[in-house]
Amino acid sequence: IERHIPFPIDEAYYDYQILKQKGNQFTVMIAIAKKAIVDAYMELLERIEVKPLLFYTNTFGLLNAFAAAGRLQKDRNTAVISIYPSDVSIHTIMNSMPAATRMLPIDKQDIWLRQLENIMRALPLGMDASEKKFDNIFIISSASDKEIPEKIKNALNANTSIENPLKDRIKGSFDAETLPSLTTALGLAIKGLGKG
Known about the structure:
The chain is an alpha/beta fold. Helix content is 31%, strand content 27%. The chain has helices at residues 35-47, 58-68, 111-122, 147-156, 179-192, and strands spanning 12-22, 25-34, 78-83, 87-94, 97-105, 136-141, 160-162. Strands 5-4-3-6-7 form a five-stranded mixed β-sheet, with helices on both faces. It has a two-stranded antiparallel sheet with strand order 1-2.
């Protein structure tokens, strides 16, 4: 685990689940969060006397929402890139399984865009070069800078589309800045209903 996270393991909470076993080889899903972030949320929830049953990653909420909207296909390699006002998150699914998530801060010099290109070339971990191809790259954006999705499409030179998995699920209008967060919340709600 330690070689896959950019901070010391004693600063993290983590859990894992074995997804698949083939002989002596295992496919394992690992969820990692910084202790400081989880502890801050726990402190806030305790102050308002809420006792959470579990913490769930935003990656799975987001992917549940895309699956419910019929945008994820089995045996297809898909990346969902969420653009927030100050950062970009990359969530990948390889052969119907979550593969990796990375976050990059957005900067004025577009260094993050070059980092995104490098990350997309390096992902997914553990696959040989011939399989490192994304069939679909979905962009969900809350960025006020409308050029950011276009910059990503041009940089990645892949089958890329700008998506809104909520368009057929929520009636009325909502602020575009909340789109990634609303999508994640919908995906978490779907999971809570046993539909994701």
